[in-house]
Amino acid sequence: MSKLFLDGCKLFNHLDRLNAWSKGMDIAPVHVEISPTNACNYRCKFCYADYSRHKPTFIPDETLIQMMQDMGDMGVRSCLMAGDGEPLLHPALTKAITTGKNAGVDMALNTNGKLLTPEFSENNLQHLTWLRTSVMALDPDIYAELHGVKSHNISKVLSNLEAAVKIKHRDNLDVTLGIQQVLLPENAKDVYNLAYRSREIGVDYFVLKPFSLHGENEHYKNGISALALRDENIELLNKAEQLTTDTFTSIIRWNTFSDDGEREYERCYGLPFIAQVASDSKIYTCCPFFGREEFAYGDLTKASFPEIWHSESAVNLRKKIANDLDVHKECMTYCRHHQINKVLWNLKKEPMHVNFI
């Protein structure tokens, strides 16, 4: 059975950081997510950053490379290249991935897959812990509608993934390859088909997650009830989950779907554990607030990652958000810190008689 765990958090696997945080210590983040560029070759309807119009900005090559080395030196354990654009459009991405890996950081990549050429896979799969491709539908017309591209692009993406699978097995690489789909009204009937095709291609997993709404998303501004959409298509989702075999895992994120994005916690305590970097070279508290100066820790073109992260102003900003931010009104649904905030909230409000476990 697969050991993949994509529907919660792994915070308790980092007890050293958790214990240090609980004592009020300033810790290095366990995980960093980087948006190397805001440029994108797609125009996805479900993109949380569609309001930015993807004005092309890039983290300077030297800044990106130095950041990777600094993260390793300060104890960051993992890094995902993703964000509000297509990472493969950044010219220094391969060097950044290699530098991060050599610095001791587990590296991962999220991409729409159009530029995931066999050449890129040849040069990078060996340095990645995992690679995930966002595919919203197998049906070419639905794919085109949701991704904002021509329908033939789905064939190119799947071909690129097939090549990546072959390279992985040929070189016996320890990299996990996956396809991710967001459940939307337009693609709900296509979930099983995509999960089945994912297994045929030979990737390691297929995962379905709920849509996360940013307040400025134009296409879904009236919101989507992930819970209602899940229930309307429950038979298809169960059927897709049953595609799991000894070599392929089909994952429906039931746990994430179950709360419909509602928050039982009142504070965002998760910021010390996850950092997010935008294409403007600034470190932010989280990606929904990219571009808003009041949520920026500092500029990487002016200071190093450790200098910014451990600065008094950054520490104070994390404390201010933990104390003052209204997570019910100001945060997008299913934010990156959502799952760890559930855990940290319960740790903070210690119950009576804790020794009676």
UniProtKB/TrEMBL annotation:
<protein>
    <submittedName>
        <fullName>Radical SAM domain protein</fullName>
    </submittedName>
</protein>
<dbReference type="InterPro" id="IPR023885">
    <property type="entry name" value="4Fe4S-binding_SPASM_dom"/>
</dbReference>
<dbReference type="InterPro" id="IPR050377">
    <property type="entry name" value="Radical_SAM_PqqE_MftC-like"/>
</dbReference>
<dbReference type="InterPro" id="IPR007197">
    <property type="entry name" value="rSAM"/>
</dbReference>
<dbReference type="InterPro" id="IPR013785">
    <property type="entry name" value="Aldolase_TIM"/>
</dbReference>
<dbReference type="InterPro" id="IPR058240">
    <property type="entry name" value="rSAM_sf"/>
</dbReference>
<dbReference type="GO" id="GO:0046872">
    <property type="term" value="F:metal ion binding"/>
</dbReference>
<keyword id="KW-0408">Iron</keyword>
<dbReference type="GO" id="GO:0051536">
    <property type="term" value="F:iron-sulfur cluster binding"/>
</dbReference>
<dbReference type="Pfam" id="PF13186">
    <property type="entry name" value="SPASM"/>
</dbReference>
<dbReference type="Pfam" id="PF04055">
    <property type="entry name" value="Radical_SAM"/>
</dbReference>
<feature type="domain" description="Radical SAM core">
    <location>
        <begin position="26"/>
        <end position="246"/>
    </location>
</feature>
<dbReference type="GO" id="GO:0003824">
    <property type="term" value="F:catalytic activity"/>
</dbReference>
<keyword id="KW-0479">Metal-binding</keyword>
<keyword id="KW-0411">Iron-sulfur</keyword>
<keyword id="KW-0949">S-adenosyl-L-methionine</keyword>
